[in-house]
Amino acid sequence: MSKVSIVVPFFNCSYINHALDSITKQTYTNIEIIVVNDGSTKHTDKILPYLDKITYVSKENGGTASALNTGIQQATGDYICWLSSDDIYDPQKIAIQLESMKTHNAFFSHTNYYAINYRGRIISPPLGIQTLSKLDLITRISKGNIINGCSIMIHKDVFNHVGLFDETLLYTHDYDLWLRIIQVFDLQYISHPLLLSRIHESMGSKKYASFIKEENKIVINRHKYVMEQLALRYKESFE
Fold this sequence. Notes:
Elements: E1 4-10, H1 16-24, E2 31-38, E3 55-59, H2 64-74, E4 79-82, E5 88-89, H3 93-103, E6 108-116, H4 134-141, E7 153-155, H5 157-162, H6 173-182, E8 188-198, H7 204-207, H8 209-237
Parallel strand pairs: 1-2, 1-4, 2-3, 6-8
Antiparallel strand pairs: 4-7, 5-8, 6-7
């Protein structure tokens, strides 16, 4: 029975108990929950009721990428997932995604998802983006990030090929990693919405939108040549 490690970066987030509730209620039981306290000074009391169910790691504040890397390095599972402390998993998220990946021999997957508001109410239709082919994926992701990081599941061996998150990227470390992965591995999309992604005023993507835009350009330029060559290779294979 494969083991799945779920890394939860935590920094002063008041929704952390909702995230942990959703993990502890997963129908798939062979999981490891790693909460990485990235220098939090608030809401740490909300973690106390879960201490007997989690691996709890504290570190100085270094950003989400450093917290994720710390969790991945601690992980003992065969597969790695990431849940932000303000988001929520569907109870069958791990079970459905793991079964699908094993069925299709996939090493990297992401799922459909809904947006929720600060009260936890769904406020959107399904938002996941399914690409029709590897060429379609390369074309679309070369222009911007189309993968919700909290919907992913990655076989741990993938990190041996592409490395961990780039800690110099404060906001687009996920986008950079996805680009590195799809240069080596295929991406599986699971159409069932298995994540609730919370939209609220203090979320980083709102507070730091201008910085994210500039950092996106850095990541796109970093991978531009390789992605163009990859797209050309797939175009030629269809001719």
